[in-house]
């Protein structure tokens, strides 16, 4: 792993300092890419889920190869970073809230997606 990769990884993978029994945060720590090599950790608001959406309390998030391509090259295939983009689309966690049209999941269910 290059020094640059190590620096990015050390900023992204910060151990949890506190175990919360209830989700009390109004915002969350988010990895936002602004351009090649310009990855920033920001607090972003947590919004309520739409009718057909689910809000997960994230336990684990992965940074995959496509995220690294965006970080180092600014593009992957025909997709380019031309405005700030939130990285980390491989997650697992616990369902916290569901929209009114969601029928197959409920609060407390374990779930993940890529």
Main sheet characteristics: 3 strands, antiparallel
Distance between the termini: 24 Å
The chain-level structural class is alpha+beta
Query: In CATH terms, what is the fold-level topology?
Result: Quinone Oxidoreductase, Chain A, domain 1
Percent of residues in beta strands: 35-45%
Summarize the amount of helix as a percent range. 10-25%
What is the H/E string?
HEEEHEEEEE
Number of helical elements: 2
In CATH terms, the superfamily is Medium-chain alcohol dehydrogenases, catalytic domain
Tell me, what is the CATH class? Alpha Beta
Rg result: 16 Å
Number of domains: 1
| E-strand count | 8
Which stretches are poorly predicted, pLDDT < 50 over at least 5 residues? 13-21
What overall form do the CA principal axes indicate?
elongated
Mean of all residue-level pLDDT scores: 83
CATH architecture title: Alpha-Beta Complex
Strand order of the largest sheet: 2-1-6
GO biological process, one term: sorbitol catabolic process
Cofactor: Zn(2+)
Domain Alcohol dehydrogenase-like N-terminal: 51-110
Pfam family, one: ADH_N
Note the topology.
Elements (H helix, E strand, L loop, with lengths): L2 H10 L14 E9 L2 E8 L8 E9 L2 H9 L1 E2 L2 E2 L4 E2 L3 E9 L11 E4 L1
Antiparallel strand pairs: 1-2, 1-6, 3-7, 4-5, 7-8
